[in-house]
User: Fold these one by one.
Assistant:
Number 1:
Amino acid sequence: LPPSSVKKGEDEPAPPQARFRPKIAVVIDDLGGENHISGDLLLLDFPLTFSILPFTTYSRSLAIEVPRMGKEVILHLPMEPHGYPKVKPGEGVLLRKMDEESLLRQLSKDIESVPNIKGVSNHMGSRFMEDPEKLKIIFSDLKRRGLFFLDSRTTPQTVGLQTARLVGLKAMERTLFIDNLLEEDAIKETLEQLIRVSLSTGTAIGIGHPHSATVKSIRQMIPRMREKGIEIVPLSSIINQ
């Protein structure tokens, strides 16, 4: 991500004149595998959202533990990317060649593998997220289940939000990936960008990944967010507002 020209403390937008405080949700993707970072994430002092892959070593146990620690679980749903099958989304993937019955059967299995979910986001899916007919099938079922959808925006041609509106599914897009560059200074600068978006629009959603630099940077930036009057919330608080 390009560095912002606005420096910390200079020319930052004032919080919107609104009834609600600006809000930021931070989502950590790709969880459930054998990664010690999950324990560090659970100890962070704010309501992080855990986006857990299906059928991984700790999918189920992590999804059970997360709500006990006051945090939120969503399913990180594997979807077909451009370049499939050379590019591998992992077990439980939804493919465009599947018919409606096959898609819904696979979706149900994926959801069953990760308990306690409030919503769903796409893992990869650059090809699947461009297919409105397949998305309608998935989104209609998510609506029936009372879940929401977060579009990770893995393709500029995503039709996620417009398809969600067609079926009446609550959905939003991520604002930024916070750790495209795995360096603490770069991650903190992206979190500053997230703060500026939240102050100017009222909400912002950041997606990170289970890396030690990401955890450390988030921990260091929590006081900064609170200092700016930003409420750090679970993802559902933004999507359901």
Number 2:
Amino acid sequence: MIEIADLGVAYGSVEALSSFSLQVAEGETVVLTGLSGCGKSTVLRALCGLLPEEATSGGTCVLDGLDTLARPQDLPRHVAYVPQNPAHALFCTTVREEVMAGPLHLGLDDPSGRASAAMSSLGCLALAARSVRELSSGQQQRVAIAAALASGPKVLVMDEPTSYLDRSGMAALRESLEALRKRGTTVLIAEHRLDRLPEVDRVVSMERDPL
């Protein structure tokens, strides 16, 4: 499902990632951990085709048969991404519009029902009519995760998803991750607070001094 080999990323003369390799099987839940600056976020962005234009990359990064470094147009049909800062993932006016946006863009059936189910699973259905800009950071994080889940991706990629969640938010996230495992969804998470996550298949430590 995920094949990363000798992946390297640089911004000018600054190396952000060097010779990183990882294989993740379909249905596996894997956590990347390591010090800040070790390249966890860079791996996730490369996998989702979201490296900035100014970045140079080498090696291979393949998700569900797609070369993600080439930014294929149909990549969003295969993977959903939740960034570390939830505000960076929210673009619509209301919460419902935000969570429905993915299914609508992909032409999926019953986008409203998908959105309601995803919001309910993250405990944010009561926020559906609220403006995303009026929400707390924790509420925004729940909405960003719900928006990713609504499209039913084959692969879910999350960067520090527990950063702003309170206890009830973390409980909802754990339940959602456990449901995804049962469904066979492949999940890759960058997270250094492993005690906040449910049981996972593997933890991969990225040993490197921070930049």
